[in-house]
Specification:
Oligomer: heterodimer
Radius of gyration of chain B: 17 Å
InterPro entries (chain A): 2Fe-2S-bd_N, BFD-like_2Fe2S-bd_dom_sf, FAD/NAD-bd_sf, FAD/NAD-binding_dom, GcvT/YgfZ/DmdA, GcvT/YgfZ_C, GcvT_C, GCVT_N
Shape of chain A: elongated
InterPro entries (chain B): SoxG, TrmE/GcvT-like
Strand order of the largest sheet of chain B: 1-7-10-9-8
Strand content of chain B: 25-35%
Protein name (chain B): Sarcosine oxidase gamma subunit
GO molecular function (chain A): sarcosine oxidase activity
Number of helices of chain B: 7
Largest sheet of chain B: 5 strands, antiparallel
Protein name (chain A): Sarcosine oxidase, alpha subunit family
CATH superfamily of the largest domain in chain A: FAD/NAD(P)-binding domain
Helix content of chain B: 25-40%
Structural class of chain B: alpha+beta
Structural class of chain A: alpha+beta
Order of helices and strands of chain B: HHEEHEEEHEEHEEEHH
CATH class of the largest domain in chain B: Alpha Beta
């Protein structure tokens, strides 16, 4: 199809490489170097979108990130991107996009009818209208969300790869226009580590759309020279297609680099987007400026664009967006657009509210014979799907002063001046300052280590841009202690420029709500009338007006319209613009994909998967695994198609009747050394440690400051000043941190060192009546006789040829040993023990069996039977609480609440139906309940079927439970049934505890 | 060292995956596990001449006092881990031997010596892309200006704690906890994806 608006030559495009693309189901041609927006304009497609609320036809307004209208749903399926800005999408062969917020099609949009009722649905209408009946709100909301919206969230999983990286530099330069290039070059010459990030595929910034001469070179040749010199500096890194989207604390800046979006789908490989997290010593912001639209009636008609965008399309993309153009400007800069259009063959009329302008550009325009209407404004645009005519008014003393005829046109280029892009400066904590002369906000005092340079600093002439950038680089280098290179003095011809005339609202103030809409925020359909309405309704803070009207929300965050809106509000309220202030600029500067934010930490990479040295053995022997903290622990080892129930029954009975073995390597292990080790232990645990003999083990409970149990475990005295503490699997890091915290902050005088040895030692629990005989077969240098090696003691020895620490401790209530060997030798020892135990039917068991065995004995698991609100007294372990010494949490045990007798206390529960296994978490109630409100007495914390007892058992916490043994209560099920249970002691098996002492 | 034959490295579960990752050879990025090195944690008062003297006598090296590594002629090195903590590495002596020797020499001084050889493994990373790979998950600045050869530091790679040793120009070692080794290795391979494919 013909690109009717393509200019025969010029621009940064390659006409020799045509590209085919699809928009709203139609096929078009563009060329290499186009954006989707420039390619559409080349095909004379201006009408590309429907607005958010009124569904008005909308066109492309800008040529950059600030675009509010030209949002498209890009591609489909795994590559779908909602709300992509056509002005930023580099065209590739086969690109397919459609308009958002238009159903069934852009031309026949069902909700275009909203335009007719627009008068009745101003800002805030739904707060007032849809409030009653209140129960209808969900229905209203559904309708509103359907009617007012932009792109649609993709429904298919994104298959692209995203990643992140950290980076560090002396100077981060944001923006690759003349200021950024100049600053990066100076910093690079000084030998600084420099990162230059620019959001375009090509460096040059405003020079890509403006004629310029630097050192006698055309602007873009100067850019090419600087670019090649930067490339030769080894410590300078240039990131193209990279948007700095956040300026965080401590000079951390976040960049999203788009690596493959410009390629046809089939050619995309590797990482799509990479987030850079850059720690910069110094930042130079060279983010440029965005042109302001002008606010007049129907200023949103397709074909109405900012002047700089028109210049960009003409000069950078070789596209003439209209043949009969009106340039409406309050400043000299837009005369360049008039010249650009004129040179490209358009008929141009300039409309300027100023009485005259003697700047260089206006003079040039007049010399070329371009008609200029001074003292005139465009007060109204007509045309339906494209502007076709503008109505002019005379402009005097800030007011419309009578009809000035009209002009037919198919393009209106407007310029209300420029807004420095202050977003990153503001995110860094800086406050913007209003510059009355330039009529824009400029950066105020720096808060972090940054300097603004170029247009974002309010310097709009190229000579000042370059000199300002050199000075910014110089200042940064000095502060970082670099020797300065010879500073460049690029010569640029200064242009004479007349001041701009601030023009915030063109139309009559008294008709603002009754004439055609004068849009301020295009994306959110906020007009001048809405701001007037907000002010009338009492919303005076700019932040409140934002919330009431929605001005400044959305994907563009008000880049285009906010300043106009603030100025209009200021005028309504009769206050100055600085008094009105700005809304808060928050990260992100432009939307960032979820993929980029997630990076590679997905699926199995989300969190570390920690494995013991026996993991492969477990896999080979058919273990199913359970996640315990970050660890993978064998859950059970099914044989011959056993289910959980059958496998666990077999494993439990093997331990009770013969011998089993558990991989307990995940238990936290902390080596404690020093003369004050016992003092530390006495502080940490509720029970006393001073008298523990060398070679003995003791169980301990650790409390937090509130007196609540937060970890438990067995600690062994290896030598006079040397202990080995074990913690719960999930609590290891927390316990070590807790201990180090006390040692480092409160008790630095204690002579004791802690070392984590969790990973060094592989730990196997060999449990069951035959465990002694198994160990005797593989260990000849330890006397395992009951008196020689009693319960709760430890011996050093050689197990299967490996130096081992063997503890006689039990978490099953059986005769049991824990064998500790260095993990690199773990598998060898484990296999030797398995071989030695074969004659006794030694059975590997997993966490489920371990849970059942300990529950039969009423042993708690911290974090399962406790939840941070359970004291040792609640657990019936008052005997472990020393009365003679102080310890962490002790004082809290004497608070009245902690001493209450009706606190939830640990009990056992026996369902009257011995086959019924209660659900963990089930609520205990006094009477059967059928859904009504019933006081809850407590809940089930652990529940299993006990194979040795051939009945179901449970542990629970229950109000006043310790004095209620023998009572019958109920556990309420989700399905409405209530299960009768008997309250009992939590020790179900071997109550006397004889088995572990044999 | 008969144990050497029956010891099992922490990366045993991904041996084949690791080999497959470098079929084209470690040109831009290489990763090798140096398993079974001796690691002993040493704690003590850095300002005590008796402590330093005893340690330096046993190890035949000067204990480092900044974020650096020192080495002895016999293949023993000391990595500074904190103001009163060092990681002693050796390829000659076993953990229990070194532990015994140091404890004996330090008798009477407040100290801690703990053999943690099985608790850690070492990844040797090489190639011109190695810093880029590390930058994917390690937030520290490892530029040679800041972190020259001979430096060490503790940090993290994604969610695994690491100790980074700068051994030579394009050669780094990571000391990683055993149970995090597989995760850390898989994250490194994933980070290096674009350089080893």
């Amino acid at each position: 199809m013909a690109q009717t608006n393509r200019i025969p030559q010029g621009g940064r495009i390659n006409r020799a490489v045509p590209l085919t693309f699809h928009f709203n189901g139609k096929t078009y041609q563009g060329v290499e170097g186009d954006t989707l927006a420039s390619a559409l304009l080349a095909n004379d497609v201006h009408f590309v979108a429907r607005s958010w609320k009124y569904h008005r036809p909308r066109g492309i307004i800008t040529a950059g990130v600030e675009e509010p209208n030209a949002l498209v749903q890009l591609e489909s399926g795994a590559y779908e991107v909602p709300n992509a800005r056509a002005t930023e999408l580099e065209l590739y062969d086969g690109l397919s996009a459609k308009s958002v917020n238009a159903k069934p099609s852009l031309e026949n949009d069902r909700l275009a009818v909203n335009q007719k009722i627009a008068r009745f649905i101003p800002a805030g209408f739904y707060y007032k209208t849809f409030m009653w009946p209140q129960k209808m709100w969900p229905k209203y909301e559904e309708f509103i969300r359907e009617a007012a919206g932009l792109g649609e969230a993709p429904t298919v999983l994104d298959t692209d790869r995203y990643d992140k990286r950290y980076a560090h530099c002396d100077v981060l330069v944001v923006g690759g226009g003349p200021a950024g290039l100049a600053a990066a070059w100076v910093a690079g010459r000084a030998g600084a580590r420099v990162i230059l990030a620019d959001n375009q595929p090509e460096l040059g910034g405003s020079l890509l759309r403006q004629p310029a001469s630097i050192d006698g070179l055309p602007g873009l040749e100067w850019v090419a020279r600087i670019e090649s010199e930067l490339a030769a500096m080894p410590e300078v890194q240039v990131l193209r297609r990279s948007t700095v989207f956040g300026y965080q604390d401590h000079n951390l800046l976040t960049i999203c680099e788009r690596k493959t979006d410009h390629l046809p789908l089939a050619r995309r490989q590797g990482v799509r987007e990479r987030v850079w997290k850059v720690r910069a010593q110094r930042v130079i912001l060279a983010t440029g400026a965005h042109e302001r639209p002008l606010v007049f009636a129907n200023n949103d008609r397709p074909g109405v664009m900012t002047a700089s965008a028109v210049s960009t399309y003409v000069r950078r993309f070789g596209v003439l967006p209209g043949k009969r153009a009106v340039v409406f400007t309050n400043n000299d800069q837009a005369y360049q657009t008039a010249l650009d259009l004129y040179e490209a063959g358009a008929r141009v009329t300039v409309v300027d509210p100023r009485t005259a302008s003697y700047g260089d550009l206006p003079q040039q325009a007049r010399r070329r014979g371009i008609e200029v209407k001074y003292g005139t404004v465009v007060s109204h645009a007509s045309g339906d799907l494209r502007v076709s005519r503008v109505t002019l008014s005379r402009y005097q003393g800030g007011r419309l002063a009578g009809d000035a005829g009209s002009l037919d046109c198919d393009l209106l280029a407007m310029s209300g001046g420029f807004n420095p892009v202050l977003h990153l400066f503001a995110q860094s904590g800086g406050k913007a300052r209003w510059d009355e002369q330039k009529a824009c906000f400029v950066p105020g005092q720096s808060v972090q280590a940054e300097i603004s340079a170029g247009a974002c600093n309010g310097d709009f002439s190229l000579a000042r841009v370059l000199s300002g950038a050199v000075q910014a680089a110089r200042r940064s280098l000095e502060l970082e202690g670099f020797a300065l290179p010879r500073l460049p003095a690029w010569s640029v011809e200064e242009q004479g420029e007349a001041p701009l005339l601030p023009l915030w609202l063109v139309g009559d103030r008294d008709k603002v709500g009754r004439s055609d809409k004068q849009f301020v925020d295009f994306q959110n359909d906020v007009s001048a009338a809405d701001i007037y309405l907000a002010a009338r309704e009492g919303y005076h803070s700019i932040e409140h007006v934002k919330r009431y009207t929605a001005m400044g929300f959305g994907t563009d965050q008000g880049k285009l319209g906010n300043i106009n809106g603030m100025a209009i509000l200021a005028e309504v309220l009769g206050q100055s613009i600085p008094e009105t202030g700005t809304t808060t600029f928050r990260p992100n500067f432009t939307p960032v994909s979820f993929g980029a934010i997630a990076g590679r930490e997905l699926g199995d990479y989300l969190d570390p998967i920690r494995k013991t040295c026996l993991h492969e053995w477990h896999v080979e022997h058919g273990a199913l695994f359970e996640d315990v903290g970050q660890w993978k622990r064998p859950w059970y080892f099914p044989r011959n198609g056993e289910d959980l129930h059958a496998a666990v029954a077999r494993e439990c009975l093997a331990v009770r009747n013969s011998v089993g073995m558990l991989d307990a390597s995940t238990l936290g292990k902390i080596d404690i050394q020093g003369p004050d080790a016992t003092t530390l232990l006495n502080w940490l645990y509720t029970n006393p440690w001073s008298k523990l003999e060398v070679g003995k083990c003791r169980y301990g409970l650790m409390l937090d400051e509130n007196g609540m149990v937060f970890d438990d475990g067995v600690t062994t005295r290896l030598a006079e000043h040397h202990f080995l503490m074990t913690t719960t699997t999930g609590g290891a890091a927390r316990v070590l941190n807790w201990m180090e915290r006390w040692l480092q902050t409160e008790w630095p005088h204690l002579k004791v060192h802690l070392t984590t040895v969790t990973d060094h030692w592989a730990t196997f629990a060999v449990a069951g009546p035959n465990s002694r005989r198994v160990l005797q077969k593989v260990c000849s240098d330890i006397d395992f006789a009951p008196q020689a090696f009693p319960f709760m003691s430890y011996r050093n020895g050689t197990v299967a040829g490996v130096a081992a620490r063997v503890m006689r401790i039990s978490f099953s209530g059986e005769l049991a040993y824990e064998v500790n060997v260095p993990a690199n030798l773990g598998r060898k020892v484990w296999e030797a023990l398995m071989a030695a135990g074969a004659e006794f039917g030694i059975t590997p068991y997993g966490t489920e069996t371990m849970h059942v065995l300990r529950a039969e004995k009423g042993y708690i698991i911290v974090g399962q039977d406790t939840d941070g609100s359970v004291s040792p007294i609640d657990l019936g372990m008052e005997g472990m609480v020393s009365k003679a010494k102080d310890f962490l949490g002790k004082r809290s045990l004497f608070r009245s609440d902690t001493r209450r007798h009706d606190r939830k206390q640990l009990v056992g529960l026996k369902p009257l139906d011995p086959k019924f296994v209660l659900p963990e978490g089930g609520q205990i109630v006094a009477q059967p309940t059928s859904g009504g409100m019933t006081p809850m007495l407590g809940h089930v914390t652990s529940s299993y079927f006990s194979p040795i007892l051939a009945r179901s058992i449970a542990m629970a916490v229950m109000k006043g439970g310790q004095s209620r043994h023998g009572e019958r209560v109920y556990v309420a099920l989700r399905d409405g049934r209530s299960i009768e249970v008997e309250v009992c002691s939590p020790v179900f098996y071997d109550v006397e505890g004889g088995r572990q002492h044999v | 060292m008969s144990d050497q034959l029956i010891q099992e490295a922490p990366l045993v579960g991904i041996k084949s995956k690791l080999a497959a990752a470098f079929v084209k050879g470690p040109k831009d990025f290489g990763l090798v596990e140096r398993a079974f090195m001796t690691h002993v944690t040493l704690r003590g008062d850095p300002d005590s001449p008796a402590f330093r003297g005893a340690v330096e006598e046993v190890l035949q090296l000067a204990l480092p006092s900044g974020q650096t590594i020192t080495a002895s002629a016999s293949g023993c090195s000391a990595v500074w881990m904190g103001p009163d903590e060092w990681l002693i590495q050796s390829v000659e002596e076993t953990g229990p031997e070194l532990e015994r020797a140091l404890r004996q020499a330090l008798a009477g001084e407040h100290h801690a010596v703990v053999d943690v050889s099985s608790g850690y493994t070492v990844f040797e990373l090489s190639g011109r892309r190695v810093r880029e790979v590390l930058a994917k998950g390690c937030p520290l600045d490892l530029h040679p200006k800041v972190f020259p050869v001979g430096c060490s530091t503790q940090s993290h790679f994604f969610k695994a704690g690491i100790t980074v040793l700068h051994i030579a120009e394009e050669l780094y070692q990571l000391v990683v906890r055993r149970s995090f080794a597989e995760y850390a290795c898989l994250m490194l391979l994933d980070a290096a994806d674009e350089f080893i494919r």
